[in-house]
Amino acid sequence: MSALLEVRDLRLQFGGVTAVDGLSFEVREGEILAVIGPNGAGKTSAFNCISGFYLPTAGSVVFDGKAIVRAVPAIWRRLGLVNLLQSFGFYRVLPSRVTKWGMARTFQNLRLFRELSVLENVTTAMHANLREGFWSTLLHTPGYRRAEAACVREARGWLDFVGFEDDEQLYVTQLPYGEQRRVEIARALATSPKLLLLDEPAAGLNFNEKQTLMRLIRKIRGLGVAVVLIEHDMGLVMELAERIVVLNYGKEIADGAPEDVKRNPAVIEAYLGVYESEDAS
Ligand SMILES: Nc1ncnc2c1ncn2[C@@H]1O[C@H](COP(=O)(O)OP(=O)(O)OP(=O)(O)O)[C@@H](O)[C@H]1O
């Protein structure tokens, strides 16, 4: 399998804190990869750099052959011009473009549009790909109305795909937490991604909801979409992931199959023996 995402020597600094410290890893097409690590290990920071939300201090990110973040030549750094160049779009790509290229994500703290209905939350994600022009949109021409109707049909299809069973006209804030998570995943899928990043998708879910989530993630992979998830639920990670990347203090300390990672001494040490005690019980 070829690499869909290549992260090289990624580094992100917040003042004196190095959140990501020379991280390199790959995501292959159609795989389920988990990124784990203790609290504050740099997982979300890495996701934010990969998806274009944060500008890393150094390193490169290539997705589907296209550079999302390019290494900035040292000369610009020395001249203190990095921020200026990046604000003009040099050496980086904005999140909206990253989404168009085929990378979608969800957030640790849900980021749905609170003032929109469930259906609108999903159709909004597809509007970016609508090819209708300014006048047809303004005048609501038959062509525009047909495109809108197709959008609604597709959005309903994605809600169905994720197993959403509530009323699509409800505001998302009226839904239980588990359903909101499903809507967020449906919205991400509606952008037709090749790669889906899920930041703690199982947080706040009960046992049954976690089982449903695992089935859903496998179903997504079945579409040929690669899934990378940050997750603290080790039971879920060990059962679901085909490969695991482990971070600690912003650095990768392991990359391998769940069984190997579980036995890796550096990983056990990072988790202060959590696995050992789990195995013993
Ligand atoms: N916006 C920010 N400003 C300053 N420091 C930050 C910011 N975001 C993260 N950090 C710091 O960077 C480090 C890595 O944080 P990050 O949230 O990426 O870790 P994480 O592995 O995702 O943690 P968790 O599992 O708790 O979500 C931490 O020391 C954190 O305090």
From TrEMBL:
<dbReference type="InterPro" id="IPR027417">
    <property type="entry name" value="P-loop_NTPase"/>
</dbReference>
<dbReference type="GO" id="GO:0005304">
    <property type="term" value="F:L-valine transmembrane transporter activity"/>
</dbReference>
<dbReference type="Pfam" id="PF12399">
    <property type="entry name" value="BCA_ABC_TP_C"/>
</dbReference>
<protein>
    <submittedName>
        <fullName>ABC transporter ATP-binding protein</fullName>
    </submittedName>
</protein>
<dbReference type="GO" id="GO:0015188">
    <property type="term" value="F:L-isoleucine transmembrane transporter activity"/>
</dbReference>
<dbReference type="Pfam" id="PF00005">
    <property type="entry name" value="ABC_tran"/>
</dbReference>
<dbReference type="GO" id="GO:0016887">
    <property type="term" value="F:ATP hydrolysis activity"/>
</dbReference>
<keyword id="KW-0067">ATP-binding</keyword>
<dbReference type="InterPro" id="IPR003439">
    <property type="entry name" value="ABC_transporter-like_ATP-bd"/>
</dbReference>
<dbReference type="GO" id="GO:0015808">
    <property type="term" value="P:L-alanine transport"/>
</dbReference>
<dbReference type="GO" id="GO:1903805">
    <property type="term" value="P:L-valine import across plasma membrane"/>
</dbReference>
<dbReference type="GO" id="GO:0005886">
    <property type="term" value="C:plasma membrane"/>
</dbReference>
<dbReference type="GO" id="GO:0005524">
    <property type="term" value="F:ATP binding"/>
</dbReference>
<dbReference type="GO" id="GO:0015192">
    <property type="term" value="F:L-phenylalanine transmembrane transporter activity"/>
</dbReference>
<dbReference type="GO" id="GO:0042941">
    <property type="term" value="P:D-alanine transmembrane transport"/>
</dbReference>
<dbReference type="InterPro" id="IPR032823">
    <property type="entry name" value="BCA_ABC_TP_C"/>
</dbReference>
<dbReference type="GO" id="GO:1903806">
    <property type="term" value="P:L-isoleucine import across plasma membrane"/>
</dbReference>
<dbReference type="InterPro" id="IPR003593">
    <property type="entry name" value="AAA+_ATPase"/>
</dbReference>
<feature type="domain" description="ABC transporter">
    <location>
        <begin position="5"/>
        <end position="274"/>
    </location>
</feature>
<keyword id="KW-0547">Nucleotide-binding</keyword>
<keyword id="KW-0813">Transport</keyword>
<dbReference type="InterPro" id="IPR051120">
    <property type="entry name" value="ABC_AA/LPS_Transport"/>
</dbReference>
